[in-house]
Design brief:
This protein is α+β, with helices and mostly antiparallel strands. It has 28 helices and 20 strands. It has 5 domains: about 200 residues, Hypothetical protein af1432 (Orthogonal Bundle), CATH 1.10.3210; about 150 residues, Beta Polymerase, domain 2, CATH 3.30.460.10; about 80 residues, no CATH class; about 70 residues, no CATH class; about 80 residues, ACT domain (Alpha-Beta Plaits, 2-Layer Sandwich), CATH 3.30.70.260.
């Protein structure tokens, strides 16, 4: 039987009692009794093994449920789903039983959680196509998103107890890359800041400790300044009879780190280390009036910066955030940010979406629904690559928004830098596809025009207009980009069909028999990598059909001549294992067969020394690595096409290998890595692609090398470079 140790038992009981107090009457005594029976039954069957991080699953679920209830504010169905989803995944019960005992709402959330956990078990949530499915399951029920955020927050809080450094770094990277932006979009600002701070702590402890120590050193002088700033404001607000709380809030370590990187200044020169927050206790009908009264008091006392005024009272953010922000010149000539909001607005800012359900029917709620609908719409199209999808999704999580209007006065929210084209697609796909220009406040502008808040936009269309390739350089919203890609793909497919038909007709007109295999060889000889590219050039008239047929006939005559020239005297039968060409030197296919054409698969880029297999395709035999991501599907669906293959002889060729590197953001890393490669004999750097964000260096480099032993040696040397955290084959 699986038993909690003493420390885990005390933690579990303490969290359980706290959860009971938090949920109150939202979870009935009958629910509690049923959950207890399910858990006890699973414990008896040893149903709570340690998870992949070495953590006790019972304790982890209890803490996640507590965060869901206490810090996010979700109720019965979500809490029950957290406590029971593992039992369904482990096979101790099924969703039908859960639905019968706890209702369809709880069962639905569990289905979403199971789907996301299955993706994580593949260890590819962000790296490939599973990212699409992960986000789609999020978008189906926003509570699944909130629970996954809660679980990630708990993992980050106890990450120091996870012994595996690679797991810890992966958790921290995903927290910064996916879960913090998601928290922000859903209005969970407090959780977003904590995730970012903890992520920085585990990815760059030195920087984290430096900023933390600096904040501690300056705390006394900062508190003194805040008190001086607040005193006259508080006195005036009291005299006006307002009920309020006013305090200073130090900015997060992560946001300070970003300022240091962005502004390239020393810590001592950052002026806005804190913000003043005024929180009013007032009825709903007086909220706006009293917020503007406070604004008037603050800006009368201190000179405001008109460029730094943000009004999210009149038009809340799409995640429901409402507040009034201004930046004023305080004592000693220092700029100070002041945030003015009510208790209701503050709760929404802390608990995000969940607080909307408490204050149902208020402005901002529909904005989030629109966003989720848009995410679903984007994800359901398969035209984008996973990388495009991630970039589009991250852009949609952008905090900066603009507000524009139709001629009838309908309001649309778009990300900053959105263009006329984005606005046209936001109205309707057909309008976007036919858009030619727009009138902004009566003035004609092109589809490239970047919209400004307050613009009144009248889209101009033409029935002859169709999406163009360069539109992808103009549109920034994921909805517009996906629709444009979809349309371009459809246009390309039509062009290919037209070109195919044209070529077949010309063959027929000239009474020439068309041989598909010979035509494919011609395409390859002419330098085309894909059949689509070949037919697209015919459709665009970059390639003349008659020229193609003339080349086809010339090639056919040449092949016939070569066949005749191959006399009996020149022919010999190779003995088993005899080397026919340099290519065949190093590879034996099936039962020592030689003279077979093959190529190395692009999906996994095998190199000499890899364990491999051959796959018979329409383009000949393709050689794949045994651990190719497509291998399971090939073996399962097309086992009859798989042929045994092995390396033989010595490697006389060079192969491209792509390595993925993660480390601290240090310009010296790239220099050190390229220096290592340049000193290696028979090795050549082909390409390098580097990206840096939030203090983390991420890059891929492609190297030409001879075999797996050379690759392993290179990986070992790169791992020894100072600042490098991870090196893996891509």
């Amino acid at each position: 039987m699986n038993v909690l140790n003493k420390e885990e038992r005390l933690d579990f009981i303490k969290s359980y009692r706290k959860l009971l107090r938090q949920v109150g009457e939202t979870v009935s005594p009958e629910d509690k009794a049923k959950v207890k029976r399910y858990i006890e039954s699973a414990v008896e069957k040893n149903g709570y093994e340690k998870d992949v991080y070495g953590l006790n699953i019972q304790v982890r679920n209890m803490h996640t449920a507590l965060i869901v209830a206490e810090e996010i504010g979700l109720k019965r169905a979500s809490i029950l789903a957290v406590l029971l989803s593992h039992l369904v995944r482990a096979g101790h019960c099924n969703v039908t039983e859960i639905e019968k005992d706890f209702g369809s709402d709880t069962a639905g959330i569990i289905r979403g959680l199971i789907k996301t956990h299955e993706l994580y078990e593949k260890n590819a949530a962000i790296d490939n196509e599973n990212f699409r499915t992960l986000l789609l399951s999020f978008a189906e029920d926003v509570r699944v998103v909130l629970i996954m955020i809660a679980e990630r927050l708990y993992l980050m809080r106890i990450a120091k107890s996870i012994e595996n450094d690679e797991y810890r770094l992966q958790i921290a990277a995903e927290a910064s890359y996916l879960y913090a932006p998601l928290s922000h979009k859903l209005g969970l600002y407090k959780i977003k800041s904590e995730l970012e701070d903890l992520s920085l702590k585990f990815r760059d402890r030195e920087t984290y400790d430096f900023i933390k120590n600096k904040l501690n050193e300056t705390k006394r002088s900062r508190d003194k300044y805040i008190a001086e700033f607040i005193a006259p404001v508080a006195e005036k607000l009291k005299a006006m009879g307002l009920n309020f709380d006013i305090k200073g809030r130090t900015k997060s370590i992560h946001s300070i780190h970003n300022k240091l990187l962005k502004q390239k200044i020393e810590f001592e020169k950052i002026y806005d280390l804190f913000a003043i927050r005024v929180i009013l206790d007032t009825p709903l009908e007086k909220e706006k009036a009293e917020c503007w009264q406070v604004y008037s008091v603050v800006t009368d006392m201190y000179q405001p910066n008109p460029k730094r005024m943000k009004d999210w009272l009149s038009v809340p953010k799409s995640n429901g955030y409402e507040s009034l922000h201004t930046t004023v010149m305080g004592p000693e000539g220092r700029w100070v940010e002041v945030q003015i909001r009510t208790k209701r607005m503050d709760e929404i800012a802390e608990k995000g979406l969940a607080a909307h359900w408490k204050y149902k029917g208020l402005k901002g709620e529909s904005g989030l629904d629109d966003w989720l609908k848009n995410v679903r719409e984007v994800l359901e199209h398969k035209d984008s690559s996973p990388t495009d999808l991630i970039d589009d999704f991250k852009m949609d999580l952008s905090d900066d928004e603009i507000f524009v209007f139709t001629p009838k006065g309908d309001l649309f929210k778009l990300p900053q830098n959105a263009t006329v084209l984005d606005f046209a697609f936001a109205i309707h796909t057909k309008i976007g596809s036919k858009c030619t220009s727009a009138k902004i406040n009566g003035k004609n502008v092109s589809i490239k025009y970047k919209l400004q808040s307050g613009d009144q936009v009248d889209i101009q269309t033409s029935p002859n207009q169709t999406p163009k390739q360069d539109w992808l350089n103009i549109a920034v919203t994921s909805k517009a980009r996906v629709k444009i890609k979809q349309s371009l793909k459809e246009q390309a497919a039509k062009q290919v069909e037209f070109a195919k038909e044209l070529l077949h007709r010309r063959f027929k007109n000239r009474k020439i028999e068309e041989d598909e295999a010979k035509l494919m060889r011609l395409m390859k000889k002419m330098g085309y990598k894909t059949v689509t590219d070949f037919y697209a050039d015919i459709a665009k008239e970059h390639l003349d059909v008659n020229t193609v047929i003339d080349n086809y006939l010339e090639q056919k005559e040449q092949e016939v001549a070569e066949h005749i020239d191959r006399s009996v005297e020149n022919y010999y039968a190779p003995t088993p294992g005899e080397e026919l060409s340099k290519k065949e030197d190093v590879l034996v296919i099936d039962k020592n067969l030689t003279g077979i054409e093959y190529s190395l698969a692009k999906c996994c880029n095998p190199i000499y020394g890899d364990e491999i297999f051959g796959f018979v395709s329409s383009q000949g035999i393709k050689i794949h690595r045994l651990n190719c991501p497509n291998a399971p599907s090939m073996f399962k669906r097309y086992g009859y096409r798989v042929v045994k293959s092995r390396w033989a002889g010595k490697s006389g060729a060079h192969y491209p290998v792509t390595l993925k590197i993660v480390g601290h953001d240090d310009i010296g890393i790239v220099t050190n890595i390229t220096s290592i490669i340049s000193k290696e004999n028979g090795m050549m750097l082909r390409s390098i692609n580097v990206d840096s964000k939030d203090g983390l260096f991420q890059g891929t480099l492609t190297v030409m090398l001879s075999d797996t032993s050379a690759m392993d040696g290179l990986i070992k040397k790169i791992r020894g470079v100072k600042g490098v955290k991870q090196v893996s084959r891509y």
